Amino acid sequence: MRIVNSELETIAVKPAQYPPEDIPEIAFVGRSNVGKSSLLNYLTGRKSLARVSGSPGKTRTINFYNINNGEFRFVDLPGYGYAKVSKDVSKDWGKMMETFFATRKNLRRVVQLVDVRHAPSKQDVQMYEYLKHYNLSGLICATKGDKVSANERQKNISIIKKTLSVDKEDKIIVVSALKKTGGDELLQAIELDL
User: Fold this and answer.
1) Greatest C-alpha distance within the chain
2) Mapping DSSP to helix (H, G, I), strand (E, B) and coil, where does residue 62 land?
3) First-last CA distance in the chain
4) What sign does the CA torsion over 171, 134, 78, 90 have?
5) How far apart are alpha carbons 39 and 35 in whole angstroms?
6) Of 150, 153, 158, whose CA–CA distance to 116 is shortest?
7) φ/ψ (deg, to 5) at 17
8) Are the CB atoms for 80 and 62 separated by under 8 Å?
9) Partner of 110 for a Cys bridge, out of 121, 136, 161, 188, CB 3.0 to 4.6 A?
């Protein structure tokens, strides 16, 4: 799959603001500071489609990106697990995400991002279980692949699989937005869900 065109379509916090359910959607979710915006920019070949922030926890909305002139959408979900965000804000995010997962009929898959350098957090485990509940799991993107050696990468993937209790048929793809590696493999896996 090639992405030739991408643009921000809608920013939403509630279902009334979502775009029509007329094309397939692939959502991306992960902890704050896992590299979600960098990944989206890399996959779309755009430097600043998704805003990359120096301070984690900035995405507090659901951002819908139109891909290839209406062929499908990428959906950037708010990052979770950032300690400096108030409990009220964190609770609002939880409600926003649950509403999205439960109501979005054209949502085909959620790509869960984890940092390849670290064992998944408690929130990562909860998110994985949550996605399984909605039959949206199956594709995990281990970001920041350039930050570890090949040996470390294999060891850390084993830790990710064990910590998340990953199903055998699930796919873990290591990506580096900085070195531009793993993107084609991730797009091929996404294409299977469209």
Assistant:
1) 47
2) strand
3) 11
4) negative
5) 6
6) 153
7) -95, -10
8) no
9) 136
Residue 54 and residue 173: Cα distance in Å, rounded? 25
The span from the CA of 56 to the CA of 152, in Å, is 25
pLDDT tens digits, 124-180: 999 999 899 889 988 999 999 999 999 999 999 999 999 999 999 999 999 999 999
Structure tokens at 92: 């609002």
pTM (predicted TM-score): 0.92
Q: What is the dihedral of CA 138, 102, 62, 136, to 10 degrees?
A: 10
* Residue 53 to residue 106: CA distance in whole angstroms: 29
Radius of gyration of the CA atoms of the chain, in A: 15
DSSP string, 3-58: ---EEEEEEESSGGGSPPS-S-EEEEEEBTTSSHHHHHHHHHT-SSSSPP-SSTT-
- Residue labelled with tokens 């929130």: 123
How many angstroms separate the Cα of 52 from the Cα of each of 43, 55, 135? 14, 9, 29
- The HSE-up count of residue 57 (CA atoms within 13 Å, CB side) is 10
